[in-house]
Design goal:
The chain is of the alpha+beta class and 133 residues long. The chain contains 3 helices and 7 strands, in the order βαβββαβββα. The relative contact order is 0.27.
Length: 133
Amino acid sequence: MAICYLSIGSNLGNRRKNIKLAVKRISILEDTQILKESKCFDTLPVGGPDNQRNYLNAALKIQTKISPLNLLKKLKNIEKGLGRVATVRFGPRIIDLDILLYADKLIKSRKLTVPHPRMFKRDFVIRPLSEVL
């Protein structure tokens, strides 16, 4: 089992409900357990179009047997199932799920980079993550 850290964000619709639904769906992934969940933080959007609504951001510490790329695929399926539609980069979204850290792995591929390349530059990631480390 690998210890992983995930980031969750939402700035469309009922943000708190979107995060709760995402956490629930992550909790029922096969061979995966949520070990710790941060509180939600209200944060300003970074990048993307002007006049976006603030985000709610949280982080999870999970334990999983799912491989990194398979986990990414499952997280993208959760996003799609909750209604996420691809728009502009850093644009508003109903849900955003990112793998921040996956055990002690260093991964750099076209689909996935771990540790997440911008996580240390973003307070909206670091604050929730610090609660679950």
